[in-house]
Design a protein that fits this description.
By secondary structure, this protein is α/β, with parallel strands linked by helices. 25% of the residues lie in helices and 30% in strands. The chain is built from 10 helices and 26 strands. A 5-stranded parallel β-sheet has the order 3-2-1-7-19. The protein has a 5-stranded parallel β-sheet with strand order 9-16-10-11-12, with helices on one face. A hairpin with a 4-residue loop joins β20 and β21. The longest helix is centred in the middle third of the chain and has 18 residues.
């Protein structure tokens, strides 16, 4: 039975919000839990949208966080397809829906996520221009890729990040022609640096993907509402029947900003600034998932992390903090990717300029190895490629903050567990 003396409101119907609601009940919270999401679908996980579901290997039902009946069974008041347009921090209310419904809160969690960055070029209103963030986007794109493969059609992807490369792999599996336009000298340059970015470029080239590095889209050319080509700032024109904008995501902070909550600066990824317990500048308001910028002492910085594991773990951490439990959210960032026959997991944080060298353990040529980004002997990040069950020792190496012998780090015969201890 719900005790109406306390009401916790969660704004955002993604993985972070759904896991926060689950955790509140698991921790014994008996008050009202109101979960408001602006999509009509029940909360779902996003990785399948560019992986198994997009490829037709995973069912639609498999992407959802919970069975639809779970919410009523656990007394979660679920409002789907509803947008929260205002927070009144003095009255402690949120306003949502077309009729301006007001909901009081004792504690509020913002899990509003991020939204795709838009191409600011002529032609983005054409029917064949796509983004990939929501389930509806993936459903549409799946049909597009199947049609392109059937008709030998061309897909131009703006952006060589994780989404761009995963969609490129899916498109090639459908049989579509693919060109990736990326301003950096390699794909994934901002995450992996040039050393490992080149490996992913080679992987995709072997599967028939064409890259156009050092360039940006300047125009999408069309006729009768349909895409014909994509032009770049170096004068090139690429034939295209469809274009995917995969140039990153922006945190959805408008609601928090209008409410006067402190935001993180752009150097730290923007987002809603939170402390180690995921509490915002208002002690009764918390933030988790893609929208939250949290301090990570492990790297002496503040980070906003857009990956699945952050939503999976951040939502529950915020829920516990809302219940008054001691929380220090300091998990090592983690994500994974599947492209063709390459599977990888990445732990840590080591953008270009933060590391001295990349140490390889294993055979990079066979794409069975672990890469370590190292600064002064300390492991900042590790990526295991087609090598499994090593995430825990890699994360322990990172968390130890101790210098290791790089020769031993590179030697597959030296157990990872013996390093950094």
């Amino acid at each position: 039975m719900v005790d109406a003396d306390q009401t916790f409101v969660i704004v955002g119907g993604g993985l972070a919000g759904a896991k926060a609601a689950e955790t509140l009940r698991a921790e014994g919270f008996t008050g009202r839990v109101i979960l408001i999401g602006d999509e009509r679908d029940h909360p779902y996980e996003r990785p399948p949208l560019s992986k198994g579901y997009l490829l037709g290997k995973d069912s639609r039902e498999s992407v959802f966080v919970h069975e639809p009946a779970w919410y009523a069974q656990n007394d979660i008041e679920l409002h789907l397809g509803q947008t929260v347009d205002a927070i009144d921090r003095v009255a402690k209310t949120v306003r949502f829906g077309d009729d301006g419904t007001l909901a009081h809160y004792d504690k509020l969690l913002l899990a509003t996520g991020a939204e795709p960055r838009r191409l600011d070029v002529p032609g983005t209103d054409l029917a064949g221009v796509h983004h990939l963030r929501r389930l509806a986007h993936a459903e549409r794109l799946k049909g597009v890729l199947a049609a392109l493969g059937r008709d030998n059609g061309h897909l131009v992807i703006a952006g060589g990040g994780w989404i761009g490369l995963e969609v490129a792999a899916a498109a090639r599996e459908y049989g579509a022609e693919v060109t990736v336009v990326e301003p950096e000298p390699t794909p994934l340059h901002g995450v992996l640096g040039p050393e490992l970015g080149a490996l992913f470029a080679d992987l995709h080239r072997e599967h028939g993907v064409r890259f156009h590095f050092g360039a940006r889209l300047t125009e999408i050319v069309g006729q009768d509402g349909m895409v014909l080509a994509a032009r770049t700032d170096d004068g090139e024109e690429h034939p295209a029947h469809d274009v995917l904008a995969a140039i990153g995501a922006a945190p959805r902070t408008a609601l928090a900003e209008a409410a006067g909550l402190q935001l993180a600066d752009r150097a730290h990824g923007g987002g809603v600034a939170v402390d180690a317990s995921l509490r915002t500048s208002d002690p009764d308001v918390y933030a988790a998932g893609d929208v939250a910028s949290f301090p990570l002492g492990l790297f002496d910085t503040r980070l906003r992390v857009e990956h699945w594991a952050n939503a999976l773990n951040g939502g529950p951490a915020a829920a516990r903090a809302m219940l008054g439990k001691a929380v220090a959210y300091d998990r090592v960032p983690y994500f994974f990717s599947d492209q063709y026959d390459l599977g990888m997991e990445y732990s840590g944080w080591a953008p270009p300029g933060t590391y001295d060298e990349v140490v390889i353990r294993g055979d990079a040529g066979k794409r069975e190895f672990i890469a370590f980004w190292v600064k002064e002997g300390r492991v900042l990040a590790g990526m295991n490629v087609n090598v499994w069950d090593v995430t825990e020792p890699i994360q322990k190496l990172i968390a130890s903050r101790t210098a290791v012998d790089t020769e031993a780090l590179a030697d597959p015969h030296v157990p990872l567990e013996s390093l950094g201890v």
